[in-house]
Design goal:
This protein has 333 residues and is of the alpha+beta class. Helix content is 34%, strand content 23%. Strands 9-10-8-7-6-11 form a six-stranded antiparallel sheet, sandwiched between helices. A three-stranded antiparallel sheet has the order 1-2-3, covered by helices on one side. α7 runs antiparallel to α8.
Length: 333
């Protein structure tokens, strides 16, 4: 049987070097010339921010968040509706009842250093298995189990292991106001959402060609799962059911890979091929040609934007669905 040529595109994981939060700050309170009556203490700012989250009060939180903070998508989608809105609402219901304390670090008040003790629960431990089950189901049945991202994502959310952590957060004092930095203080946002912060900007992209369609799930620009449907119209004469089964079994023997091979009435062969990139061996995928000559490899990071560019250069048409979150628009920017 003619060897299939499967490809996903790989790109660079941008070197995101997160320094300490203090290094991210532009000015101290004293440098800004604020008087005591013009400022609230940093621990009060953090307390107000966390209380606003418990209340679902985006208006009170928004001034303290950078433009790239994923919580903007989280709240705006809830206001605008859409399929992801229900997922985000469930996240909030599962995470809003946390307890916390916030205390300014003595002697480091000028740099906005605050110790936060947060007690909550993670809610995302079921997501990896839910995605893999969806990949397997769509590969086996040819349905939309995997492409219906909000459905399996939302169903996977549940109260899990306790979070009882103490972390240091910094309030950054800038000329345009105080901020709780979205990258340098990312741990706060991850714990606040029970670990869901990394999943807020998930999307599903469909890339379609003449005899090939890819469905690609990504967190931001990072691809995590894929289901491909490919139709082979040549070199299929003489294939038996045993041949097809052996071909299918070879794929299914690999961790993180699912396959279904069938012969159509017109004699062509259809292969549905699913990959969980967090489970599968990158070496094995490269040997199969899943990561092949079409792939731009640098740092082992599977990039959605690079994948789309590669597919479109090959004549495919791609469309990204963020299910109402606005994540697709933010990626384009």
């Amino acid at each position: 049987m003619k060897k299939w040529n499967y490809a996903a595109a790989v790109c660079v994981l941008p070197a995101l070097l997160l320094g300490g939060c203090a290094e991210q700050m532009e000015l101290t309170r004293e440098q800004l010339g604020l008087s005591e009556k013009d400022k609230r203490t940093d621990d009060q700012i953090i307390s107000d921010f966390l209380t606003a989250y418990q209340e679902g009060n985006y208006e009170a939180m928004e001034p303290y968040m950078d433009e790239d903070n994923l919580l903007h998508l989280y709240y705006q989608a809830q206001e605008n509706g859409g399929e992801m809105a229900e997922v985000y609402e469930k996240v909030w219901e599962l995470t809003k009842n946390f307890t916390f304390t916030a205390e300014a670090v003595e002697g480091k008040e000028a740099w906005g250093e605050v110790t936060v003790h947060l007690q909550s629960n993670e809610i995302v431990s079921g997501i990896p298995d839910a995605m893999w089950s969806a990949i397997e189901a769509q590969t086996e049945n040819g349905d939309d189990s995997f492409t219906s991202l909000p459905e399996w994502l939302g169903e996977a959310l549940a109260t899990g292991d306790p979070i009882d952590e103490e972390l240091t957060v910094y309030v950054s004092h800038r000329t345009d106001g105080d901020r709780i930095d979205s990258s340098a203080c990312r741990e706060l946002y991850e714990q606040l959402t029970g670990g869901f912060y990394d999943y807020i900007d998930m999307t599903m992209t469909a890339c379609t060609g003449e005899n090939d369609t890819y469905y690609v799930a990504a967190q931001g620009d990072s691809i995590i799962g894929m289901v491909e449907t490919a139709v082979q119209t040549e070199d299929t004469e003489g294939l038996t059911g045993e041949d097809l089964q052996a071909y299918e079994d070879g794929f299914n023997a690999m961790d993180g890979v699912a396959a279904n091979v069938s012969q159509r009435e017109d004699g062509s062969v259809e292969l549905r091929f699913g990959v969980d990139f967090n489970r599968a061996s990158s070496t094995a995928l490269a040997n199969l040609g899943v990561i092949s000559d079409r792939v731009n490899s640098y740092g082992g990071y599977l990039s959605l934007s690079s994948t789309i560019g590669s597919f479109e250069e090959g004549g495919m048409t791609c469309e990204t669905n963020d299910f109402g979150s606005g994540a697709a628009a933010s990626e384009e920017e």
